[in-house]
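Good day; I would like, with your permission, to put a structural problem before you. What I wish to show you is a protein chain and, alongside it, a tokenised description of its three-dimensional fold. I would ask you to consider whether the tokens describe a fold that such a sequence might reasonably adopt. You will find the record immediately after this paragraph:
***
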Amino acid sequence: MCKGLIWGAVIAIGLAAMTSGRADAQTAPAQNWPTKSIRMIVPYPPGGLSDVFARLIGDKLGRILGQSVVIDNRPGGNTIIGTQATAQAAPDGYTLLLTNGALSINQSLVNNLPYDLDKDLAPVVWLGESYGILVVNDKVPARTFPELIKLAKDQPGKLAVGVPGLGTNYRIAVEQLKDIAGVDLVLVPYKGSAPAISDVIGGQIQIEIDSLVPLAPQVKDGKLRALAVLAATRTPDLPDVPTTAEVGLPEVVLYGYNAILAPAATPRPVIDKLNAAVNQVLGDPDTIARGRALGLRIGGGPPEQLKQTMDKVTEIYAKVIKSANIKPD
């Protein structure tokens, strides 16, 4: 009996030591991390919104952590190439991914992804979201969003709405608008914002849904009329334009997010240290101001908040993609 008790005590001590050892193994890297430069993968080419935002975040983050943050542009496959590179990287805190809602779109839009979003990637921090707006040209008689809905119902299949890209959150917003408001709109996908803006100004299409940055100058110059902001809050750049929630269609928003993720097995202490540093960057008034210039509402918060946001957006996108039978570009 005594021997049993002794062996039980020995086993208990051994298990405690193993648990403590695992905890120490995770804590040790966090105490010294980072000791070298950090690679931040951006799944888009240089010069775009995500790239500019990544360089803004990376520069400030590097100063806080005392190591440089190197931007690694990996465009292609609607962010799949860069995402896969991150998922397959060593989980040591030295490879990060700065991405957006395309991550959630791909979950339902693309078959046989080369990574598992839940198993291969770990959320680090929610960076914020882009403002989307709906505009019309000056020949459209509707002066408000409700008037546009009435016009679309009175003229089913007559109004065309342009979006940049076919398998994008802009397309999803159009499908939500058609379904929830009960209107028949003709979808016209474009290769980018510039040709869509040119056509809506020229009257080849009547409506466009796009992000704030390319459309705001056209609205301020009077070339286009903004009827609604597809976001939870108004944008300070167009303060007089109501949100879709304010005009009675709260579910018609440009769901999405900007986020930093890491390989899944990255030690939690490293993720926590990184999360704290990025939140410090996001709280900087300069970051908020420069983010606003990029059409972004700056976010922040713990990794769990990002996970909740990603799960919600992924679920919403899945329903719309399935019901509207959206296919990849």
